[in-house]
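Quick look at the format.
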Amino acid sequence: MNRQTTPIRRALLGATLGLSLLLGGCASVYLVDNQVQSFARWGSTANAPAAPQSYRFERLPSQREGDAAASQGTLEDLARAALARLGWNLADPADTTPWTVQVSGGALKLPRAPWEDPWDGFGAGWGLYGGSGGWGSTLFMRMDIPYYERQVSLVVRQAATGQVVYETSARHDGRWNNSPELWSAMLDAALRDFPNPPSGARQVNIVVPR
């Protein structure tokens, strides 16, 4: 049999190699696409505070007890790192600060993506097959793949008056499992263009190493 590589075979081999390299390169990172909306009420652009600034975290009563308090502490640690990258630093507990920051986050786990039909191949179902013996039916099984809807928000207030001067949120939907890197990416997205964000909703994509 002639094993000489034909032009078509060479093209297929090249395409396969290119796809393998692409998948190999993408395997080290993943994209966190966020829908972000921010509101600034500093009084005017000129009054937006220049870094560095100091602040303290503020918690709601529901964020102060039990498992919620532990989760809130983890989220605040990630928010502290994100704010530090912008020149905002957490003050010592005894220090007076001009700002307070309230951060919150939540996730909803769905059994499948919203656009997926729960009856389309999920669980047991019947499918037709054809062969030399004619047409028949066979039983197949497909597992659900969870889908997550996540959101984080940050609110900055004047410590002296309690007035809200900055509000921002980021929403991300997808199949990625829960991880600190994912929440950190969402916080970075929510704080994009801080302290003078553009008006209206926008998409902010963050590339995260695996």
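Next, a different chain entirely:
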Amino acid sequence: MATYGMVLNLDHCMGCYTCVVACKMFYGTRPGVDYNGVVPVEWGEFPDAKQRYQLPMCMHCIDAPCVKACPVGATYASEEGVVLMDYDKCIGCGDCVTACPYDARTLVTDDVTSFPGVVLPNEEEASDRLNIVEKCTFCYGAVKDGGTPMCAVHCPGQCRVFGDVDDPESEISKYIAERNAVRVEGTHIWYVAPADMPDEFLPKDPVTTYLAKLNAK
């Protein structure tokens, strides 16, 4: 059985937002609903100041708090470890949104589209979803058909690598070994970062992230 994972190479990301746009075009999500993101971070001082980017997204936690929080089983994990949504079951309570350490889930409450009064062809499916939660799914449907997540397909810097981490011959397994990618404990995400990138900017495990989120309030 496959186990899906993704490597985020923070050293390769150029901040072009292609991953965000590709995802949004593919899923036709409403304004303000993004399954992934690009956040610039800076450290050091002139003339040695540096800038890289954080890539927030669903980390597909192994023991996902959102799955535990959902009272109706609308959010669940696939056999490959991907955290998914059953839109037909979702009652819009928002418990999973509150439970997510990474703020990677959106409760859609506003009936808006990119252009007022117009539903674009790629927005038709998403426009039927209201008062339910949406999130990244690793493009599970496409992957099951032999495809790759849209963010990884279209990244010009090739900083996203997806695949079966249980297969030692897969691209992602070889990439993890060759680049010494670090696994975010408790998730299906690995990362590669500049050697001098401050620890505060690196992705953390779900518990550490959730506690930091609480302390920030």
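The beta strands are 4-9, 39-43, 50-54, 75-77, 83-85, 105-108, 132-135, 160-164, 182-183, 189-192.

See the schema section for token definitions.
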